[in-house]
Amino acid sequence: MTKIPLRRFTARVLPIDEQGRVLLLHGFDPARPDVRFWFTIGGAVEDGETLQQAAARELYEEVGIRAGVEEFTGPHAEALIEFEWGEYAFTQDQSFFAIRVDDAVVSFDHMEQIEKDTTTEYRWWSSQELESTEEVVHPADLATILRKIAEEDGNAG
């Protein structure tokens, strides 16, 4: 089956709690439901949005956490990736923004239906856990990014 090509620019969000852990989502590609992976919050920039505005919108839509654009730091990393998901073949520029969240209550209530259908859980991860896990995490260098953010903040990660 031929995939529909889609080029997009995305804001990826790294919510970091008071313990220096990052919030990740767990889910699967609807075309391959048996392959599970952890991934960062985020999505495509919509018309007229800045990357930070997209980050704030996606943070609310995907996990129910409200934040102002001025609360985000970064981008702490940027990458161009290619991957398939559902019926699409994505070419994606992604920029990673961090935000400090204390006592965050996570909710999937504002997700689009396809996101609700393919997101199974969430978890807070330390950089040590990311480095030692056997599970698939996207991006693969997330522990390095998390440590860089902690160093910039003057905290151990």
TrEMBL record:
Task: Output the Gene Ontology terms for molecular function.
Answer: hydrolase activity
Record's keyword annotation contains Magnesium: yes
Which keywords has UniProt assigned to this entry? Hydrolase, Magnesium
Question: Is this entry keyworded Hydrolase?
Answer: yes
Note the superkingdom of the native organism.
Bacteria
- Can you give the residue ranges of the Nudix hydrolase domain? 6-148
Co-factor(s): Mg(2+)
Spell out the family assignment given in the record's similarity comment. Belongs to the Nudix hydrolase family.
Q: Which PANTHER family match?
A: GDP-MANNOSE MANNOSYL HYDROLASE
- Record's protein name: 8-oxo-dGTP pyrophosphatase MutT (NUDIX family)
State the organism of origin: Nonomuraea thailandensis
